[in-house]
Amino acid sequence: MTGEIIAVGTELLLGDILNTNAQYLSRQLAALGIGVYFQSVVGDNKDRLLNAFENAFKRADLVITTGGLGPTDDDLTKETGAEYFGLEMIEDKESMDNLRDYFKNNNMPETNLKQGYIPKGAKALKNNNGTAPGCIIEKDGKILVMLPGPPAETIPMFEESVIPILSKKQDKTFVSRILRLSGIGESAAAEAIRDIMKESENPTIAPYAKQDEMLFRITAGGNNKDEADKLINPVVKQIYKRLGQYIYGEGEDASLEKAVLNELEKRGLKIACAESCTGGELCARLVNCSGASNVLLEGVVSYSNESKISRLSVKEETLLKYGAVSAETAEEMAKGVSLNLKADIGISTTGVAGPLGGTEEKPVGLVYAAIYMNGKTNVYRYMIKGNRNKIRHRTVTNILNNLREMLIKDVSEK
Amino acid sequence: MTGEIIAVGTELLLGDILNTNAQYLSRQLAALGIGVYFQSVVGDNKDRLLNAFENAFKRADLVITTGGLGPTDDDLTKETGAEYFGLEMIEDKESMDNLRDYFKNNNMPETNLKQGYIPKGAKALKNNNGTAPGCIIEKDGKILVMLPGPPAETIPMFEESVIPILSKKQDKTFVSRILRLSGIGESAAAEAIRDIMKESENPTIAPYAKQDEMLFRITAGGNNKDEADKLINPVVKQIYKRLGQYIYGEGEDASLEKAVLNELEKRGLKIACAESCTGGELCARLVNCSGASNVLLEGVVSYSNESKISRLSVKEETLLKYGAVSAETAEEMAKGVSLNLKADIGISTTGVAGPLGGTEEKPVGLVYAAIYMNGKTNVYRYMIKGNRNKIRHRTVTNILNNLREMLIKDVSEK
User: Fold this and answer.
1) Which pLDDT value is given to residue A413?
2) Which CATH superfamily is domain B2-169 in?
3) Architecture category of domain A173-250 in CATH
4) What are the 10-residue block averages of pLDDT along chain B, 414 residues in total?
């Protein structure tokens, strides 16, 4: 089955609100194995909506709309759906009772009465979180599902009333696994497994670039979850064999910072951070994972030379001779924060985040970062393109990934 | 002129990412006076994209695409745009030079070369934040603008290269002013100026809720900028009269942290931060503004009790008696960091960010924050609903706004 999503609402076309329903419904349909090849947004306008229905049903068997079920004259999705299928609007007793019940002692505005009507032959969908019931029309092999617009109503209605109906119509089960990679770009990663991607039809392998990382989504369809898993697993194994060192985690919830914290916690290692150009973002991203306190001793945002000297024991002559943005300063910062705070690992960042402060020798985007561990310091040099925010964010991602690789390597060498 | 937005990317159809570009571009087009009646999302598929172009150009003069300009075989927006207009792809020297420059000493994967090609007769748009240049095709009265997908690339490219071109084509000049408010919710702010909003037709006044802030966009159309400005100014003045204390800045680039840094710099005040639950985010948000070094002396991420005692001179008995999350600890942290680092102002945060660690007495979301200045400490108590990330982010916003209000009040009293 193929599906399309049409969001109805002028507020979406003006950019007043974000179309989160489309993302939610797309995910749900993907999980049900219903292919979505098109999403659209159209205003509260009968002719344009009719046109959208016509185009959508040319391409798809199932169309899901969100929005336009409210009580005002603007709200005309249901009426337009009825017109598209040549159905008249009739009162739905249960919906009308629910409406009266919803308003109970409050006076129901007259306009709300229209929410008690549905296209003849359609099935009303109860709204447990608002006044507008949804409905489903099934006719001539086509299905039109009309849901309310506010996500707090759309989502429960979809889960309570629509999933049970759609899943009965699907004979296949689809399973996805997501591999998350850091330290390698989309094109290089895709290049490394091009042959696997080409050969594999079920599962399919799709690469995506995200900010500072990339991921592969591997999706298989089978008669049941077991069968789909069995199709996916050998392919995932092949990918791990080639790109394992870059794969820091799996699934929607994985993050590089969580992966690093796990590796540290497994080894019982404590870290301390000395941040100059990243200004606290390294710590903040670690602390954003629950349980960071088991691993993170302290962070110092050492933005000035004075503070680098007093807190981190960076030598004044190092700053004078090499500058605050230098491999030498990064090295002393990492060592200093580790020794001063008695942490197993010290991490430092220092760089030119811009937009001002760049020189020919040290341009905006030049960053040094260092990791001190077991008496040794590794210094990294990054050249990052982009604005201040991107340079700082990418620096944190890079040094976290370097730390992750170092920890994993450290173990495998032993 | 009417415009349409087509987002290209299978990851959008799978619900892997949210289509924030559509919202951003819709707003921008509205501000330019370009009507948007349709948005759509289509996968990385030539035939379906061609079909989308055909439908869109039936309805609109301008089509803006996002995504599909990357280096992989999947990325085919530019090639499909060329095919739609019957143009061949040719090498664009400047784009190719920029690409080579981007990769410099790193090896450029062969596949990236395709990003240096554009449709013949098109104008390339430089990408200052990534590898994929955009481009504009103008032919037979139709305009196709193709932008990269990652918002960090889409938005700057649109603002730097596309707005200047589109605004020249509009006969009316639209001017928008954006007032940004902190410390007041959308409905309370809208309520406070409901009569002004109702009366005013040109300019229009639209309220938007954003994460942790709200804004009013005031838009007027006139024959030239001056005329539009003259329509806007008295309305803005009225809004300032009623809500001035909440308005921390104007425009897309304003931020609460910049506003705070400006107020501090004007007064020649230096600050130091002691962060527990926010874990560096307060510093990171300040440092994200260029020039933070003029104001920020140092930050301490003091996540453990030990560190609160040794670095911030919090008394052990305070921690024992009241706990780390308490008004008393927040107060001592702010005072300690200010005195220890010889800063004019010390700011502290300590709270239960969750998801674990909450008790009946101190539930998840309870945060204390403090500001020490001139020998006095103000302590604030927040109860914030939401996940760990939201609690920490909102804490930073709240304390920054409290500091801003304190600084402004301090001056007006003098």
Assistant:
1) 47
2) MoaB/Mog-like domain (3.40.980.10)
3) 2-Layer Sandwich (3.30)
4) 95 91 93 91 95 95 96 90 96 89 74 89 93 94 96 92 91 85 86 89 81 85 90 96 95 90 95 96 93 90 89 95 97 97 96 89 95 96 88 95 91 49
Chain A CB contacts of B45 under 8 Å are 37
Which residues numbered 170-209 in B keep a CB inside 8 Å of some CB on A?
206, 208
The average confidence (pLDDT) of chain A is: 91
CATH number attached to the domain at A256-413: 3.90.950.20
Chain A residues whose CB is inside 8 A of the B36 CB are 13-14
- Does any CB of chain B come closer than 8 Å to the CB of residue A383? yes
User: Any CB–CB contact under 8 A between B121 and chain A?
Assistant: no
**pTM reported for the whole predicted model:** 0.74
ipTM: 0.71
- A224 pLDDT band, cuts 50/70/90, is confident
Instruction: Output the pLDDT for position B137.
Output: 97
Looking at chain A, which residues constitute the CATH 3.30.70.2860 domain(s)? 173-250
Name the segment(s) of chain B with CATH classification 3.90.950.20: 256-413
pLDDT for residue B414 = 44
CB contacts under 8 A, B 314-333 vs A, are: none
Q: Rounded to 5 degrees, what angle do the CA atoms A4, B209, B289 make?
A: 110
Q: Does B134 touch chain A (CB under 8 A)?
A: no
B50 and A CB contact within 8 Å: no
